[in-house]
Amino acid sequence: MTEALIDRLAAIVGATQVSIDADVLEGRSVDHTGRYRGHASALVRPGSADEVAAVLRVCRDAGVNVTVQGGRTSLVAGTVPEHDDVLLSTERLRDVGEVDVVERRIRVGAGATLAEVQRAAAAAGLVFGVDLAARDSATVGGMASTNAGGLRTVCYGNMGEQVIGLDVVLPDGSVVHRHSQVRSDNTGYDLASLFVGAEGTLGVITALDLRLHPTPRQRVTAICGFADLDALIETGRVFRDMEGIAALELIDARASALTAEHAGVAAPVQGAWQLLIELAGETDLTDRLAEALESAELTDEPAVGVDANAQQRLWQVREAVAEVLGVYGPPLKFDVSLPLSAIRGFAEDAAALVAEHAPDAIPVLFGHVGEGNLHLNILRCDLTGERGLYSAMMALIARHGGNVSSEHGVGTRKRDYLSMARTEADIAAMRTVKAAFDPTGYLNRAVLFG
Description:
Strand content: 15-25%
Helix content: 25-40%
Largest sheet: 7 strands, antiparallel
Radius of gyration: 22 Å
Number of helices: 14
Strand order of the largest sheet: 13-10-12-11-15-16-14
Distance between the termini: 21 Å
CATH topology of the largest domain: Uridine Diphospho-n-acetylenolpyruvylglucosamine Reductase, domain 3
């Protein structure tokens, strides 16, 4: 990083939007969990797609690596620089357009937060299909780059199913505008989908057209307790394929105990495992809920919420989990996708593996059980215990037929385990695509392949 390069970047975005302050860069070079750190040489905050393009061209020509940052909520160190990178932040790309209530869509900048999109949709009487606990800081550009899922995936699908158009700056500085006003657009390559889930390795998303959905008139929410995980999974299967399913969330009793102690939010039912169910539609679905639960092996009566306040209290049980995960310091996180039939065996084997590698640690399991997408967080696990545990847990996931990444992406943390989920031919094809778009590999160099 030379003074001349800094001057060129400042000429593009303005001197106030470039920083080489050591404290600023240090704060931007640590991941959301606080476990992984890197090193950057400068921070640049472009204010438009044209500025992003100019910044990329300057950095490429200078042989400087670039790491793209949005809300920096990655849980796999996806925004941690490893090569004295220039950090390109999308935080100024915050435009939120008018909602098209007829076509149910909205155009937003990549730096807009999920919460901002949700508020715009709600004000127009619509709903955005993806919801995350990090809604106030996660940006939609980053969510598209990782194909994020979240709390409503069982109903609306992942982020990729919400993206109907985008603007993306390619590594050579050219800008692709892929937008269409028609619902059926099958002309040529589906370029938009190529950048969704690419984790910023193929280009920088600067704006998106997002699909919106009608707001259901009726909702009913319940939390059920189970003594046996297999019984919960069987009930989950019933609801997963049910018309009107809006959410299906697993919580273990260890998580509930932590939320009760540290957040003042106690589970309203007993049992080693809890299942949050929400149905939504145009009519009252309470009877449908009750009928589906008649044969479920519950520990006691479910807690049911039919009005907004009661539903919010039940959702707090699930969302408070994210608030307490750091009570013992940064947790060791695993985002795993498993066949439903493998969840019980994985839960038992994972607990035994944690006890072997980190006897004082607390394993907490929760997540989106409708898709088999679970989040295993190891609390009170020091760095000494982490070294052997991480690779052993990845091997365990593979043995149970799971995928090493579900909705958080690969980032830098999981790149060494990519071969557990993809064949050599798959990886070679992905590398070919990467090389076609970014021959020198300067964009998000540390991510995915390393």
